Amino acid sequence: MSLDNKTIWSDTLESIKVSVSPAIFSTWFSQTHLSDLNETNGRFTIEVGCNSSFVKNTVETRYYGLIQDTLIKILGKPCDLSFVVKESPLQGKKEALSFSPLFESEKDNLEETQNALAKAKIRPGYTFSNFAVSSSNQMAHAAAEAVATNPGTAYNPLFIWGGVGVGKTHLMVAVGHSVLTANPSHKVLFCTGEDFTNDIVEGIRNKTTQTFRNKYRRLNVLLLDDIQFIAGKDAVQEEFFHTFNAVTSAGGQVILTSDRPLSEISKLEERLKSRFEAGLIVDIAAPDFELRCAIIQIKAKEKGLELPMDAVQLIASNLESARKVEGFLTKLISAAKVRRMEITTEFVESLLGKGVEENGKLIKAKPQDVIDAASKYFSVGKRALLGTSRARPIARPRQIVMYLLRTHLGFPLEEVGRLIGNRDHTTVMHAVKKITHLASADAQIREDILGIKNSL
Ligand code: ADP
Ligand code: MG
Asked: Is 207 left (phi over 0), alpha (psi -120 to 50) or beta?
């Protein structure tokens, strides 16, 4: 590291220090250095060295944007970043260790916790701190926090059910994370109903059921995701029954998730059902618009992506499942990189339109169907809908039709304008903006949009 690079990096870190918490700073940023810097055509290419691949992954995925913005401010020119695993050349020398006393002990703790998390098969990144709470998941969240604070005593088992992508796995993993962070020596294990089944089958086949039992029956916290999977499998349910009893009677905590309520898991043994009923059963409903916005903001921030609020709302009104958010954001980032484009609502819109065409998941309908459906839904004649009246009861439905054609069917602005009474593309753009904005504040508009979509 030349003196210059060193100064640039220490300035960068000084500036970052004020925008993140001290824990985050000493955990992640103090383990980085500037390992290479080149300038070509007024653009800097910067290589950030990280002490381990774990640091690299986290810093790269979560703080890319923050580091880039900071460097741009300091260097005054555009910067492209890359991250590598590399020891700091100053490692071991006194001057590199100005963070050292705090950092060394934190590093030990961190390493211990990281090892414990890996051993427990807990994926990093699903924690309470990045779980957004709203009315749909408030109960489940409170129960999970109670269990994390007092494992084995608050509610046992905790049974969380709900549809796909509502955050069941995230919440369950957050409990494991919290328990291990407080106490890395606890025995915690995350597994799916499928993992559990495979383990047993293997145990029986290889005559290693004892190993299996040692692995599962001595846990302090057992996190079993998608328990519905074991229903109807006799040997598996039998083994699970004994596992459950062994863990809970030794004071351990069990958390289960399911994609449906207990009463709808057919072929689940009665004795298991009654065990589960003895604990706490909570459900999580589908996230509403506000919660989806919050989740999108969290995920964008983790990816170092700056998303304007309109873009967040546009995505939230188009993606109903939180599960699709990450995939979409990844796609957005790479598309923006490839085209070197700033992320604007128009850009997000075009990509959402594409997504619709590609997977056909949202609406596969002809423009005429949308017009017919809206005409029926609002009881407004088609001629009026496509006509020139500016009266609100006609103009608002017209804007909703334009919005749907643009964002849900993916038609270009010009085409939408042509379909809706030969209007100019700027009128369409205005309508899309207007409805996007209204949908974030007005439940009635969201209901209208959903009503039309459902009737398609
Ligand atoms: P489930 O297990 O219910 O199918 P997941 O826990 O896998 O759902 O969640 C799907 C995705 O949505 C994950 O990326 C998760 O982090 C995210 N997610 C869901 N609910 C929330 C929430 N309330 N806050 C933050 N992220 C959430
Ligand atoms: Mg899940």
From this structure: left
